[in-house]
Prior knowledge:
The chain is α+β, with helices and mostly antiparallel strands. The protein has two domains: 2-54; 58-170, Nuclear Transport Factor 2, Chain: A (Roll), CATH 3.10.450. 47% of the residues lie in helices and 30% in strands. It has six helices and four strands; from the N terminus they run H-H-H-H-H-H-E-E-E-E. Helix 2 runs antiparallel to helix 3. The chain is elongated and about 75 Å long.
Amino acid sequence: MTTLLEDPTRLIVAGVALEVILGLILLRTGRGVLLVAIGVVLLVVLAGVGLERVVVTERERVEAVFYAGAAALEANDRQAILALIDPSDDDTRKLMEWALRRVHFVRVKINELSIEVDDAADPPTARAHLIGIVGFNDRRGEYPYGTRPVDFTAELHRRDGRWLFTGHALKNDPRGR
């Protein structure tokens, strides 16, 4: 069920396939009652897509944190970035503060994002992995413009209804760690 609430593609594909089959049967038989079936299938697909738009799953909430973080990085908005990090997560906070002092972010693109949410944990937790590209200008002037691939794994938890970063692992940490 969660899959349908996060991505209605399967429902749409199944609906289109069923509509084509019903349309072919209608053409072949000429039975008007099939128009009712075609209408019902259309309404079910539209209701499913509408439900997907209305219902926001925990996984989608975690995903939104990553895209908000990417937008905050592109805007070089220190406060917005730090607001996404749990106060107890000194390591991630230090990484972001270092990065903001060192570079001016120009472009942040998330190419792949996978998220696993554990609602049974107290508080609920999530583990996410992303691969992306970061474009930046070096504030020290050593490199006028650079891009860097990012392979980032993060731990998050929900506190007071918000998902916050609580830890991370970064392949090829630019700080040399």
